[in-house]
């Protein structure tokens, strides 16, 4: 009887020893899994700050020396885009203004939009002699973009000008977007632009003094349709972050723009632009 009790006590002691060793090993493993970790394992971890992807790039454009001109020059242009990390790369047509979607669903995007219009200098072309300079114009407004299908996008932009012109401009476009391969995407479609009288005036109107100096008849441009046309683009992703693109855009000036003596006598209503560019995407954390 005593022997049986001693054997039971020894077994119980051994079991407690093994349990203690296992518990000590588990605690040691738990503590050693992440030395210096904060917060400690099992504690509440605050959510990581949101991440954003910024796309920047540069584009070279072979375009008319001035809007309505018939001779060409090469100009650089910046490219900028911003989107939340985890969202797909946004499609961008050559004539899209820069912007970010503040409201977004699977098919619809709405947000602020801006575009910078280069200054026009009298020294840019002999055709501009006597017409003076037009300063840089900064256009601010908003856009609405809707995807009718994964391969069909429509977009509308309305912007107010500041600086070189103080009018209102609107651009409507539609694009077929066709991924030929995972890296190559082709796109293209129609374009339509409107402009108010104040938006057209600095570029197409001719006042009495300008008429006297330049020899062109006086003219007052009226607002309405500015142009109609089409564009096509090819974009290739060398890596998920690095892409290059080429495009061609054609627009036919209309109404108040096309009827200007500057266009009729010293230029052309047919406007063609060729472009080539490169973009690079960067990811960063928001810490505020």
Shape: elongated
How widely separated are the two ends? 75 Å
Low-confidence stretches: 1-43
According to DSSP, the number of beta strands is 12
What does the largest sheet look like? 12 strands, antiparallel
| Portion in beta strands | over 45%
Number of H/I helices: 5
Order of helices and strands: HEEEEEEEEEHHEEHHE
Q: Give the averaged pLDDT, no decimals.
A: 84
Gyration radius, rounded: 32 Å
* Relative helix content: 10-25%
Structural class assignment: alpha+beta
For this entry, give a set of tags:
about 290 residues, twelve-stranded antiparallel beta sheet
Task: Explain what this protein looks like in three dimensions.
It contains five helices and twelve strands. Strands 1, 2, 3, 4, 5, 6, 7, 8, 9, 10, 11 and 12 form a twelve-stranded antiparallel β-sheet that branches. Residues 1-43 have low confidence and may be disordered. β8 (168-179) and β9 (184-195) form a beta hairpin. The chain has 288 residues and is an alpha+beta fold. The protein has helices at residues 2-32, 197-204, 208-214, 255-258, 261-266; strands at residues 51-64, 72-84, 98-99, 103-104, 108-117, 137-149, 152-163, 168-179, 184-195, 224-237, 242-253, 270-285.
In short:
The protein is 19% helix and 46% strand. It has helices spanning 2-32, 197-204, 208-214, 255-258, 261-266; strands spanning 51-64, 72-84, 98-99, 103-104, 108-117, 137-149, 152-163, 168-179, 184-195, 224-237, 242-253, 270-285. The longest helix is centred in the first third of the chain and has 31 residues, at 2-32.
């Amino acid at each position: 009887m005593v022997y049986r009790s001693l054997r039971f006590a020894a077994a119980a002691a051994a079991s407690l020893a093994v349990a203690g060793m296992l518990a000590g090993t588990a605690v040691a493993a738990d503590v050693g899994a992440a030395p210096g970790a904060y917060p400690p394992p099992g504690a509440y971890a605050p959510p990581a700050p949101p991440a954003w992807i910024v796309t920047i790039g540069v584009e070279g454009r072979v375009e008319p020396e001035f809007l309505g001109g018939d001779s060409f020059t090469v100009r650089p242009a910046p490219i900028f885009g911003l989107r939340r990390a985890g969202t797909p790369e946004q499609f961008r047509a050559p004539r899209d203004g820069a912007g970010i979607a503040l409201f977004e669903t699977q098919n619809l995007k709405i947000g602020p939009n801006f575009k910078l219009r280069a200054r026009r200098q009298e020294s840019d072309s002999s055709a501009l002699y006597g017409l003076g300079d037009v300063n840089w114009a900064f256009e601010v407004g908003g856009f609405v973009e809707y995807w009718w299908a994964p391969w069909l996008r429509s977009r509308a932009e309305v912007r107010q000008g500041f600086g070189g012109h103080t009018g209102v401009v609107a651009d409507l476009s539609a694009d077929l977007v066709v991924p030929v391969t995972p890296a190559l995407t082709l796109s293209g479609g129609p374009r339509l632009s409107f402009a108010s009288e104040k938006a057209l005036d600095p570029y197409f109107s001719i006042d009495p003094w300008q008429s006297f100096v330049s020899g062109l008849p006086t003219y007052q441009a009226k607002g309405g349709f500015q142009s109609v046309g089409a564009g096509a683009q090819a974009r290739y992703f060398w890596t998920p972050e690095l892409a290059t693109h080429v495009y061609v855009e054609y627009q036919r000036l209309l109404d108040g723009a096309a009827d200007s003596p500057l266009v009729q006598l010293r230029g052309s209503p047919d406007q063609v632009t060729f472009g080539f560019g490169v973009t690079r995407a960067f990811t960063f954390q928001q810490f505020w």
